[in-house]
Amino acid sequence: MDIKPEDIAACKPDCAAGPAIEAKGETVGVNKSKMELRSLVPLAILAGIFIGMGALFMTYVKADQSLPFAASSILGGLVFSLGLICVVIAGAELFTGNMLMTMAALSKKISWGSLAKNWVLVWVFNLVGSLVLVGVIFGCGVMAVKAGDNTIGNQMVAIASGKINLDAGQIFFRGIMCNLLVCIAVYMGFAGRTVIDKIFTCIFPVMAFVAMGFEHCVANMFFLPMGILAAGQGFGASVDPALLANVTLGGAAYNIGLATLGNIVGGAIFVGLLYWWAYHKKEA
Questions:
Q1: Residue 34 gets which letter from DSSP?
Q2: How many separate domains does the chain show?
Q3: How many helices (H) and strands (E) does the chain have?
Q4: What predicted TM-score, i.e. pTM, was given to this entire model?
Q5: Residues 256-268: pLDDT tens digits?
Q6: Which of 80, 281, 91 is CA-nearest to residue 182?
Q7: Which DSSP state fits 224?
Q8: DSSP element (H, E) containing 150
Q9: In a domain, 121, yes or no
Q10: How confident is the model at residue 69 (pLDDT cuts 50, 70, 90)?
């Protein structure tokens, strides 16, 4: 069997160079803007479910309060990366990752209107997927499961309370930092040539944003409703009643709204715009 030089080149394990990664980002943005609703809707729902599964996995780790702070934070971030790995490898439409569509819009390969339409639809159906998972997990009855010296339900309330009771500026800036890391993970994945490449690029940025307590709007679409439900079931006795009072739908909307704005800035500007500026080549 004859092997062509281009076949050998295509199998090289090295990653793509900077300009090629940016060009891939533009191509991905164009393809996303052309996606039909019959594909976009289920893929966005799946992304909400995948990120929620990572969030639940992290909750199990964080509920074990016998773990030292650093170990709990790092291990929690590691298992949370399950969500983005599923999005990147299996394929799903994640609002925060789609901030990179900015590169295609800046290159005038897609309109800003089509970008905004994609963002709105994906955000809405990420929320749908997250809420579907919330209902399923509630039905599983895992809130009373003990992890170390804490229950999952108590940890759900503690996570929700901690997020909702942040100052508005803190949520916004934590949203920026979160999606800078998430989008850099997705962007680096464009450079990979194998499944392992793409998995590896997801792990450390996601581990970092979780360990440092940054705010991801889609993850919070799972965390906060779960915390509200858990509080309604009588969990969260260790949470200050004054803080617990804010664990409501209004509190969830407050956090998710601000986190969304921060995520847009972190992903679209700090990653999409800056890499486009650095590497975009104008058409001849």
A1: T
A2: 1
A3: 14, 2
A4: 0.93
A5: 999 999 999 999 9
A6: 80
A7: H
A8: strand 150-151
A9: yes
A10: very high
